[in-house]
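Task: complex structure prediction.
Instruction: return structure tokens for all chains below.
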Amino acid sequence: MFQASNPRILLSIFGLLTSLLTPPALASGEVNVYSARKEDLIKPLLDDFSKQTGIKVNLVTGKEEALLQRLQSEGVNSPADVLLTSDAGRLAAAQQAGVLQAVQSASLNQNIPAIYRDPDGYWYGLSVRARPIIYARDRVKPKQLSTYEALADPQWKGKLCLRSSDSVYNQSLVAGMIAHHGEAKTEAWARGLVANLARPPKGGDRDQIKAVAAGECDVTLANTYYLGGMISSSDDAEKQAAAQVAVFWPDVQTTGVHVNVSGAGVTAHARQRDNAIKLLEFLASDQAQRWYAEVNSEYPVNPAIPPSATLKSWGEFKADTLNVAKLGELNAAAVKLMDRAGWK
Amino acid sequence: MEIDRSRFQMPPYTNPPPQGGRGFWSLAAGIDRWTVLVVGLAMLLALPVLTVFLTALQPPGEVWRHLADTVLADYVLNSVTLMIGVGVGTLLIGVPTAWLTATCEFPGRRGFEWALLLPMAIPAYIIAYTYTGLLDFAGPVQTFLRLTFGWTRQDYAFPEIRSLPGAILMLALVLYPYLYLLAQAAFLEQSAAVLEVSRSLGAGSWRRFLTITLPLARPSLIAGMSLVQMEALADYGTVQYFGVSTFTTGIFRVWFGMNDATAAAQLAALLLLFVLTLLVLERLSRRQARFHHTGQRTQRPPRLRLSGWRRWLATGACLLPLLLGFLIPAGQLIVWTWRTAPQVVDDRFLELAGHSLGLAGGAALLILLLALLLGYGQRLRPRPVVRLAVRSAGLGYAAPGTVLAIGVMLPFAAIDRNVDSWAREWLGLSTGLLFSGTLFTLLFAYCARFLPAALHSVEAGLTRIRPSMDDAARALGAEPHGVLWRVHIPILRGSLLTALLLVFVDALKELPATLILRPFNFNTLAVRAFELASDERLADSASFALAIVLAGIGPVILLSRAISRSDHAPLP
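Output:
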């Protein structure tokens, strides 16, 4: 069999393979996006952008590290024009890896405050994500709460739920603590948190909120948009759980509430650089900024945009003014610190 | 039953010397087209794993000291416990149910025969989500208990599902069908004669099972077990969600959290070395004994009719895994889908399903072809170099999907870069990306990952064919390909279908490689389900998870039927 049909088989395999090699889109009226934001949390905006400008958006979603790896390995031929991430540290890492380019735009600089963008224009924050304390309304009085540090106090023994230290949100939070208080103090604090745990860390942010509502623990840390998602959930149990908890803004007297940003940058080898900038400008525009708040309960980066009703109900807070790029720098140190503290 | 090959040894069959076979070919004794083809193909498929090893080839960095001081012991202990636990669990579920449905008669037997495969259609991380939703502190079961009995948290103890034992249970429930499938095929193929002889020699039924049935099925059981254990080691979704630190979660923690790709590759390489060692040990242990049937299913043994309480025990033993592994999680998915489908299912749903089915079908056919080529080549040229090459091509199954995907991405991107710079220099034009970001790369990753599932099944089928059959066919003048088409393929049909099914369903569920390597605007059901689930919208993801399950059920039933029918197929 093999001797006789060898060339034919090879030919047909080759034919099959070449037919699969569809070239990436390079037409002029397009822009190609690698996005670490989930499709549901970006596609509606991209569709609006296409409607308004006539520019077609091609999208691949994925985990940030994988997208970054893909960008790096594709090199100069990468089809991507824009990299969207949901974590500022990863944007800083992308910049260091040399896959982003600096772009300047008057409207971007005007709409986005300086602490939420790279000084040279390599990346721009597009939405702010806050990680406050979530507590049980019936068992905790707000005045018992004050700061992140105070959660390590023995009064919370057996009453704290935490997500795993694999979560980038916790890694960023600890990185922020290191930036403010140094490693030694932060490690002692992390040990205190671990000692107060009601159960080993597991599940996602919503799971922590549900555990508080169900009485498994009294306090936890969670990003606000998860609470927002539960409030508008189609699941009545989630809605009820969300009604049993409240948001407490810690550290408002001191360093401010831990925040991170989701953002975007134009890739180093973008073919459609102008379209890419247009897309970034659109994402920082009033319309898109309002969408972030209304659909996903994220805080707009543009301070001129009024918050949505849900965001308003949680009250105002003072955000940490630490440059979010610092969180990326300290991420590795944070992970190791949590390993040492026994934070699973 | 056991053939001592040396007694009937035919002259070893090799290809006729290559035409004009002088010069290099005759000098380099032992190099022929089959060897070159098989080794070449296997090396190509091993490329991702080799990439991981190459990346790992650097002096260990400072991170290792940190890991050794803190979490490494946990990783090793948890991974080994998981692997052994899942192995034992699947054995306990898969073998008795396979034996019951293949050789006994009891109420519901016909239905169980295929229904026991259904849990395979549920991705491991999905079953983990559904059980968490049900059994968690805030879930309906515990809430019901608290409301009914007026308990609070301190008043009762409830087993924690999100734990290492929970992860073992979840993985065993969805992975046992792999073992069941291979074991069932093996039990069905055992001929009546062997069992009758042993019965007439006075062996009791337990003794027959332990000394005849199990050893004869051993290659299939081992194949199934090693598949299951490799899957368990490579699992990320379940253990991560359950907060169990294993090697896999450690790889990502080091890579993403500590931004140390080298140490991550070293951890992955260590995991792969561990698997390689196990596989080698398994091969060595098997070298002692070779079991072959002398007859091919001349007559099916009559089914053992169970009576009295035994019938219902058998029914219960088959119902339990079906209930836990399929009916309960699928029921939960249906409840969620009922509630959320109107909001999440839109006109793109069919497109997603088309992508999923097309990819999985294409991958299954391609991989079956590759597995046949490798399995057959290995049989024709049983040399250490061939065996080693094929083994290393199969290692991808034990690699966490994301690691493997990066292992695919890097070499193809390097090829793209080199071709491009060559073309720029010599032709003055840019070839751009030829492979990166295309379906070809994605299909290649599927091949590298799922080849072992097909290969194990094809190999296990091949070992059930007596070597003397090849010899007879060759002595009667058949060419090697004639032996393949006219002797092996008809006998192998069941194993080939098994391979096709395993890969199809596996590919349908595949997530990490699809996520990283897919082209623009190309989503699958698994990607969609994952995106919603990882955004902690479990109920919203149910529609897509359920679609994966439904898409997997059809092939499962069809192929299960085909397997039991091929059992009666007349020999050519």
